[in-house]
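Risk register update: the risk of archive-format incompatibility is retired. Evidence:
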Amino acid sequence: MPSIKPLDTKVLQSAAIETKQIVTIEEHQEAGGLGSAVAEWLIQNQPVSMKIIGVKDRFGHSGQAEELMDAYGFSIEQMTREILTLPGIQLP
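Archived output:
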C-alpha cells in the first residue's frame, strides 16, 4: 500500500477475495497504522483472516538497522513465525 489514506480498497478487496488472508507489515506501532486501517475496512466489507505485524506498543530506540529490526520483531524468521500463526495459512 503506498498510503493509508486514501486506502486502496480495490486492491485490498481483490487480495482478500483471492487469498482469503491478509498480512500487513509496517515499521510503525500496530495501533493506528496501516494494519488498523486495513482491519477496519476488512471487517466491514470483506472479512478474512488477518495478521498485523508491527511494533508492539513500545517506544523507539536508536541503533544499527539490523539490530533494531531484530529487536522489534522484523527479522525474516520472526515475521515468518508470526505469519504461520494465521488461521488457515497455506504456503506454496
